[in-house]
Design goal:
This protein is an all-alpha fold and 269 residues long. The chain is 70% helix and 0% strand.
Length: 269
């Protein structure tokens, strides 16, 4: 995976075994030290969805998204929480376990990949919430319409994994070398939430510059793939294709930067 020089099958197995152990440790610590445990995986997107649903359906006259709007929201908010929590943890990926990072013989990329994996598992744990709202919508005036697009969900998960690994390999070492980047990353994430099609779709943007810029946000195509199984109108090969290319380019850039900064980073820890 990524920068790990996995030449022999034995090395790959050891890497994957270590990756799983570290990811399982993260999940165990998260759930064992919390009274609510698993519920924390769903509370954040659930509360956010409820707030935006109330604002855009009960207070203001909504002109974006599709019906049922709550399903439209959750299909993007769940992967957004995976993205947001992963990138936030990348900023502390090496500083948090500095002694172990320095002394271990495992490829250091594992400290990025274990965040992607553990947060990805939490994302999968939260999907039953989406299923419940889809079922509930069948009793409303505008039920969610399941279609062939559900087959694209695994592709969306794969693209988001590629994007996150690439960002992690960029963000994690840079935050070790420049501490101020941790706070900067948090500010960027706040702005990126509104710059990404979470509470709206790409097609809701004014045609022209804004729509073109939005297409180059890799999350735009990824969210469209998550949504297309419920909203066929979200299918946009142009936006999805750009997202795939951007995700792969970010992964390639992340691998390059990580290889260049790994030694300076270890000296700084």
């Amino acid at each position: 995976m990524t920068t790990a020089a996995v030449g022999a099958p034995g090395s790959a197995r050891r890497y994957l075994h270590s990756l799983w152990l570290l990811s399982a440790r993260d999940l165990k610590v998260r759930y064992s030290t919390s009274a609510l445990g698993y519920l924390w995986s769903v509370l954040d997107p659930l509360v956010m969805s409820a707030i935006y649903w109330f604002v855009f359906t009960q207070i203001f006259q909504r002109t974006v998204g599709h019906e049922p709007y709550i399903v439209f929201l959750i299909t993007a908010l769940l992967p957004w929480v995976w993205f947001n929590s992963s990138v936030s943890d990348f900023t502390r990926a090496f500083n948090k376990d500095a002694r172990l990072v320095r002394s271990t013989a495992i490829p250091r990329s594992i400290w990025v990949n274990r965040i992607v994996l553990s947060k990805g598992i939490e994302f999968l744990f939260s999907l039953p919430v989406l299923a419940l709202f889809v079922v509930a919508s069948q009793f409303s005036d505008a039920p969610a319409q399941l279609n062939w697009g559900l087959l694209w969900v695994p592709v969306a998960i794969l693209l988001q994994t590629v994007l996150l690994v690439g960002l992690g390999l960029l963000v994690a070492p840079l935050c070790v070398l420049w501490n101020d980047l941790e706070r900067t990353t948090k500010l960027i994430l706040r702005a990126l939430f509104y710059a990404s099609p979470v509470i709206y779709g790409v097609e809701d943007l004014p045609p022209g510059v804004f729509e073109t810029l939005a297409a180059f946000n890799p999350l735009a195509g990824i969210f469209a793939l998550y949504r297309v199984g419920f909203f066929a109108e979200e299918w946009d090969p142009w936006v999805i294709g750009i997202s795939a290319v951007m995700s792969l380019l970010i992964l390639a850039l992340g691998v390059y930067v990580f290889r260049r900064l790994e030694r300076p980073m270890l000296k700084e820890l």
